[in-house]
Amino acid sequence: MVRTQIYLTERQREELAAIAKTMGKKQSELIREAVDRLIEEEGRSKRETVLRQAAGIWKNRTDLPDFRAMRAEWDRN
């Protein structure tokens, strides 16, 4: 692990201490868990954004075969 210092507001520090006490965890553990959740959410958000941007990028292509016709032909055989 890498040691990192952060600044918290007084309220953040008090709330974090109360949550840590209630959960029986160290404050540093709660901060690491919160950072992990943020990283996961951002990763998911980025994936969703890329998928939305990619949706329909081939819809106006004219150089592709007619996939519906190809599929219909396959289904007949």
Mean pLDDT: 91
What class do helices, strands and sheet pairing give? mainly alpha
Order of helices and strands: HHH
Number of domains: 1
Taking Cα atoms only, what radius of gyration do you get, to the nearest Å?
25 Å
Count of helix runs? 3
Shape: rod-shaped
Estimated helix fraction: 55-70%
Biggest pleated sheet: none
Intertermini distance: 60 Å
Regions with pLDDT < 50 over 5+ consecutive residues? none
**Number of distinct beta strands:** 0
Q: What amount of the residues lies in strands? A: under 5%
Quickly describe the structure:
With 77 residues, this protein is mainly α. The protein contains 3 helices and no strands. It is rod-shaped.
